[in-house]
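Deliverable D5.2: sample structural annotation.
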Amino acid sequence: MANYTQGLIYDTFLSMLDKMSFDKITVTSLIKECNISRNTFYYHYEDIYDLLDDVLISLIKKYDQEAAKKDLKEVLKSMLYDCRENGTKVYNIFNSISRDRLERYIFDETNSIISHRLMKIAKEKNVDPARAQAITDIVRYSIYGFFMEFLWNGMKADIEESVDKLIDIYNELLEKMFY
């Protein structure tokens, strides 16, 4: 029953994000929509931010799993298509007071996806770990910026073309940076 209730809270929260900004969603409105008690909500989550964290963490896990099976190009495309498909939800978080949380998750996620790939390449090519970390940081910062620009520009970019171009440039740079 606990998993069902937690799923209900989670799904209702996502549904509400389709209708309103994150900063407009309250525990009171959520429990009313779910038809559950306040205590039931607090059994599963500390507060509305804890619920948002749960949603973002579950998305991160999805992309971490994809990153283990697919190349960076495909993972980025998947993320961007998912964002576009869920644009209302994304912007209802992005344009709210919790934007810093979303940005932190995006930044952390790019580290997770990129770091293990580049460190593996660096190890194979016997690149100094400090240099490898610097290269990883540069790539992560630029992918984060790429993603933020995608959001700022209303997710209108041609995903296939822009990601292909970005990753092709990275591959050329990495060849030179890793000698």
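Annotation notes: The first helix runs from residue 2 to 17. The chain has two domains: 2-44, 52-177.
The annotation will be released with the project's public dataset once the embargo ends.
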